[in-house]
Amino acid sequence: MATAQQVVITVPAATSTPVSGSVTADGNSTAFTPQLGRDMFLTLSGTWTGSVQVQRSTDAGATWNDITIGGGTTWGHYTANCDEVVATPTDSAGTYRLALTVASGTIVYRLAQ
Hints:
mainly beta; Jelly Rolls; five-stranded antiparallel sheet; four-stranded antiparallel sheet; 11 strands; about 0% helix; about 50% strand
């Protein structure tokens, strides 16, 4: 009779520095420089109305574009609290930020790996 063996996989911690904060007025988060090949998670909480858009720059922050999927369909746009994967970066020139629009309340955010 075969015996079951347990396999333990250790995943090293991400080396990127999370971007987090809270806002009560429109603005942008600071830039997030991801570690390549690891999922990026966005967590939004608080009591708020408004929107949050994940944006990407490939020119050191001179230009920011909303992230898209499938030929230009907007991706990474939120109007409610969440905790989910928004991208898995593979381009070393890419940095990310959040464009935050607040109609009321406080948006608490965290972009991390």
